[in-house]
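Posting this for the archive.
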Amino acid sequence: GPLRSQISERLRLLELEPDSRFSARCRIFPVAPRSLRPLVGLTLRMAQPSPTLPYLSSLATYLDRERPDALYAATPDMNIEASLAARMAGASVRLILSEHNTLVRGHPITRGWQRRFLPSVLRECYAKAAAIVAVSKGVADDITHRTGFPREQITVIYNPVVGPDLLRRAQEPVDHPWFQPGNPPVMLGAGRLGKAKDFPTLIRAFAIVRRRMPARLVILGEGKKPKKTAKRQAELTALATRLNVADDVALLGFQSNPLAYMARSALFVLSSLYEGLGNVLIEALACGCPVVSTNCPSGPAEILENGKFGPLVPVNDPAALAAAIISVLQDPPNPERLRERAGLFSIDRAVDRYESLLL
């Protein structure tokens, strides 16, 4: 993907080879423990199984050949596949499984009748792992609520967001006229152009703000595929047009360095329906940019300490979001206080925690 160039040259990057879904399904069943077989049986019949399933055989081959000390996986499908690959390889590998989101109603992985087996299957995989990691306390609580896995056996490690190069990247130039001195304040949103980020609510809130004061809205991000990006951008543009704010809304697509935009924005707004943690909030704080967020499950309240470092409002409530935006624009917080808060989510802190699990 577009961020591949950011991978350190010290790391060895291996590209797994995809197999046919049919072949991958057939290889799973003989090694699956009895408790996993209901899901495996469903996987054999599912028209749209996990998109990473075709790489299962290649991962198992790698584990068998290289015998790594540890295998780290993230998100439910890949956690299950990592557990199965270790069984297929017969490898004695330290398995660390992690969850990065709450599985709220509407999350893609919770849809379909087949997913009623998911909690029990995940619990089985967690029980066989050396460690279970959640990126926030809210995600850890959700794991326990949905699977019954003991909360005390889940380690919370916040995402490593703030590193030594963050300030340098934040100071890089932005080639957009709205960010030049003397222009109206810019509100910034960023994230994938999908339902979870709820950008329509952000645009509706912005329209309310615009009736009270001059401002502009910039949204960074794209869809999973070019066609989805074009579709989502068209929908958001049409909404802005209906609300008579299209001239003050810019959809800039994917940007490799959103930090530079955060450092030059008057406010960052997160309008999500759900999050695992909310890295963009942390990045904005680290840039000294004021923030407003929905109080969605589960990360924003932890990042902002229940509103101490930025207002929290109900999800899907444009009026409440607009009121919080206006309040912050009229009385912005001290940037140094925000940067200090972001230090809680440093790379050094996360690395120390992960090392304790790997050794």
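Residues 226-242 form the longest helix (17 residues). The longest strand covers residues 94-99.
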